[in-house]
Amino acid sequence: MIWHNIKVGFHRLGSPPVFHRLCRVVAPWLWAGAAICAAFGLYKALYLVPPDYQQSDSFRILYVHVPAAWQAMAGYLVMSVLAVIALVWRIRTTEIMAMMGAPIGAAFTLICLATGSIWGRPMWGTWWAWDARLTSMLVLLFVYLGIMGLYAAFEDKRKGARVACILILVGLVNIPIIHFSVEWWTTLHQGSTISFFGESSMDSSMMPPLIWMVIATKLMFGAALLDRSRNELIEQDRRKGWVRQKLGASA
Amino acid sequence: MTRAMLALLRRDLRLAVRHGGESLMPLVFLFAVLILVPLGVGPGPNLLSAIAPGMVWVAALLASLLALEHLFRPDLDDGTLEQWWTGETPVGLLVMTRLFSHWLITGLPVIVFAPVAAQMLYLPDRALSTLVVSLLIGTPLLSLIGGLASALTLGTNRGSVLLSILIFPLVVPVLIFATGAVSAAADGLSARAHLGLLSALLILAVTLIPLATTAALRLNIE
């Protein structure tokens, strides 16, 4: 019985008006959660955590850099799951969500590259190095841009979404490459210092703000994804009855 | 099944031969790039032999892009592509055949003329065989990746710009391992690790890319 209800609920989400209503209810809560976590995390990161013994205060950029990098990759995984669902079951709202993840993921990738570059200038003495981690992250940015460009180039949005979903799945090979790049190659970028299973080589006093920031970026991604999908849905369906009903005849 | 594939191959090659000049364009383009490089960076043998592996490979990569726009589009326009789904031959095999003929036209000439290209940029002689092997493994990969990108962009009307944006991230590993192999050989080191990884990429691509390409073609003729 419970299983049946879950199934029905899931199928109802494929209906644009239901999906629209859900996004409208859930997204503000996610935004609020993201704002609180980010405020808390940034306050801890900037005021409470002691300076690093070697890098003094400049290490604090990691509280933006690392969560953004993780979110850029996690966002891609979310898009891949949505792409599989979209290609197999052809649910329109999932197709739209898979597409709307790309600009957000691209933004996180760009934040990651920019903050890394700003940190690299004083620490490594260079803005950029062609090492495996940096290059594979740059490749991820172009995969995101390719998905956005491909989707935008189609007149028929549903067809464009499905074709771009195939590209999402092809680009998935890059994700493990990014993750393992610091182990497979000798890179200027440091290896993993944070480990969930076993001891991290980062001091434990530096961890809590990072966790808050990671939660904040996750919530932010979810909120932006729901908002963007809702907007795209309204724009695509602007001549349909349910949108006129919801937004008044003027829309 | 084999008959359909052979017929397609024969047709593609015949078309390529009859369009003689057009089919030679990738090769002409390759040499145009290779002539411009020494003029651009200066003709010093030391610098040229250091950048030779990368330059030959980048030129081969750019040359393979040239014919991609016409890989599936004429067949889409005249309706032949839809017929692929009506026959009994699996479309994946027809896609493979088409990519094979693309490789014969754009990849093979590059491999044949690789020794000449190597000489133009003073690639050390001991690296020549590795260059040829890396091209043998790597150019089919370029055809496969290019074929996928060309199938993905088939339904759009501004294919060419998009094509290069889609191809760029996918060919990065090919370029890294291929030039890594040739550079290692030029330095007198073993290139086997790089060539092994390149072969692994080829095996992965041969098994998975035709499936993705077929799916993309199918979405585009719907």
UniProtKB/TrEMBL annotation, chain A:
Residues 32-189 form the Cytochrome c assembly protein domain. It comes from the Bacteria. GO terms for biological process: cytochrome complex assembly. Its main location: membrane. It is found in: Cell inner membrane; Membrane. GO terms for molecular function: heme binding; heme transmembrane transporter activity. It is a multi-pass membrane protein. The keyword Ligase does not apply. GO terms for cellular component: plasma membrane. Pfam families: Cytochrom_C_asm. Keywords: Cell inner membrane, Cell membrane, Cytochrome c-type biogenesis, Membrane, Transmembrane, Transmembrane helix, Transport. Belongs to the CcmC/CycZ/HelC family. Required for the export of heme to the periplasm for the biogenesis of c-type cytochromes. This is Heme exporter protein C. It comes from Wenzhouxiangella limi. The gene is ccmC.
UniProtKB/TrEMBL annotation, chain B:
This is Heme exporter protein B. It is a multi-pass membrane protein. Required for the export of heme to the periplasm for the biogenesis of c-type cytochromes. Keywords: Cell inner membrane, Cell membrane, Cytochrome c-type biogenesis, Membrane, Transmembrane, Transmembrane helix, Transport. The keyword Transport applies. One of its GO terms (biological process) is cytochrome c biosynthetic process. PANTHER family: CYTOCHROME C BIOGENESIS B-RELATED, HEME EXPORTER PROTEIN B. The lineage of its organism: Bacteria, Pseudomonadati, Pseudomonadota, Gammaproteobacteria, Chromatiales. It comes from the Bacteria. The keyword Membrane applies. It is found in: Cell inner membrane. Belongs to the CcmB/CycW/HelB family. Signal peptide: none annotated. The chain crosses the membrane at residues 21-41, 47-68, 103-122, 128-149, 161-185, 197-217.
